Amino acid sequence: MPSRAQIVATIGPASKDLEILRQLIVHQMDVARLNFSWGTHEDHAGFIVNIRQAAQENGRTIPIIQDLSGPRVQDESGHHINPDAESVITEKDLNDLDFGLSQKVDYVCMSYVGSANDMKRLWEEIKKRTPSAGSGQAGTAKTMAKIERKEALEHLEEIIAESDAVMIGRGDLGQSIPIEQIPFVEAHIIRLCKDAKKPVIVATEMLKTMTDSPIPTRAEVTDIAYAIILGADAVMLSEETARGKYPIEAVSVMERVVLEAEKYERDVNPL
Fold this sequence. Notes:
The protein is of the alpha/beta class. Helices cover about 45% and strands about 15% of the residues. It has an eight-stranded parallel barrel, surrounded by seven helices. Strands 4-5 form a two-stranded antiparallel sheet. β4 (about 70-75) and β5 form a beta hairpin. The chain is globular and about 45 Å long.
C-alpha cells in the first residue's frame, strides 16, 4: 500500500525520459515538480508530455507543480534573492506563468514570498490568464507559497491564509536565518499549516547524498521520518531526481522511509 504522505520529485535531465518516469511512478512518485530556474519552455513541455504519458500508462494522476524562480541571482557561491528586486514576481516569472497555465499545471509555486500580498498578486496574475469556464484553453492552477525568507516567517499566518499550499524551502531559509533554527522553524510552519488545513511540503537536501550515491545517510533517513512525524503532507526531492545519478533509488528510499514513519505513527497513536 502506498504511503499517505506524498513524494514530490523534481524532473530534470536525469529523470526526463519516459522509461525513468515510468519507474519513478512505480516507486511511488506522487507529484512532479518543474523548476523554472533552469531549462527552456521547450524542455519543460517535453517533461510534461512524458510525465502525463507515464502517469496514464500506470493508471495514475500525477499533479505538476510549476516552481517559478522569482528574483533569483546566481553567483559563484550559489543563488540568493536579488536585494534590489521591486517584486518577487519578475517579468520572467510572468512569461513562465503564461507557459505553465497553457500547459495546465496544477500548482504554481512562488519563490521568495515575503508577505500575503505576494500571494494575492500571484493569484491575480493567474486569474488574468485563466479564460472563462468552457473555453477549453488554459486551465486553472492553485497557488503555493515557498517559505524561504526571514520576512516570510514574520507573516506566516497571513501567507498561509492566502495560499492553497505551502513549501518549506530549507535551502534559502538556511541562508536567511541561523541554520540551527531550521528544525524548529520547520516544525512551526507544519503546525500552522495543519491548523489552517493547508497542505505543506518539506523540501531541500532530504536525500542530497543520493545525488551521487545509491545509499542515503542515517541523518537523511531521520530527517524524512522527522518531517512525517511532525505532520508534513509531502516530502520533496530536488537535484536528487533532477540531476542525480540515482533518481529511481532516491524515490524508492524515500517511500520506504515514509511508510516506516507512518507505521510508527499508527503504532504509537492507533486512533
